Amino acid sequence: MVENIRPFQYRSRRIFTGFPVEFACLGQITRGTCLNVSDDGLRAEMESEIEQGASGLLTLRPSGKHLQVAVQTVNADSNQAGFAFCFQSDSEREQVAALIASLAPAKKTGRILIGDPRSRQ
């Protein structure tokens, strides 16, 4: 039982999304919808089942943008698949980070205003 325990690792922050993706592997393209994305990879609901361990090219299409990244399927369950990004360069890593930053919800300032806002005019 003890040998099944994995060492603790922090996971990257995940952004919940719903943009289209396409996975190209061995000459076949499978379309899907990205459910969440992080700096390390993403989870998607696909039109058909993806084999665990499959490697290919994933095209991300959020809000009219277009980005292709090499990936490997790290887990697959029914029609959902977890893809790990396999960056070929720092530039690719930076492009994905910029894409994720553009999808992240705006941060709140945390400022609390007390009193009647009409008195500040």
Helix content: 10-25%
**Sheet of most strands:** 6 strands, antiparallel, barrel
Strand line-up of the largest beta sheet: 2-3-4-7-6-5
CATH domain fold name: Thrombin, subunit H
Looking at this protein, list some descriptive labels.
121 residues, Thrombin, subunit H, six-stranded antiparallel beta barrel, 1 helix, mainly beta
Structural commentary:
The chain is mainly β and 121 residues long. The protein has one domain: predicted glycosyltransferase like domains (Thrombin, subunit H, Beta Barrel). The protein has one helix and seven strands; from the N terminus they run βββββββα. The chain has a six-stranded antiparallel beta barrel with strand order 2-3-4-7-6-5. The N and C termini lie far apart (66 Å). The mean pLDDT is 84.
Brief sketch in words of this structure:
By secondary structure, the protein is mainly beta.
Secondary-structure map with pairings?
Blueprint: E1 15-16, E2 20-25, E3 28-37, E4 41-46, E5 55-60, E6 67-77, E7 80-85, H1 90-103
Antiparallel strand pairs: 1-3, 2-3, 2-5, 3-4, 4-7, 5-6, 6-7
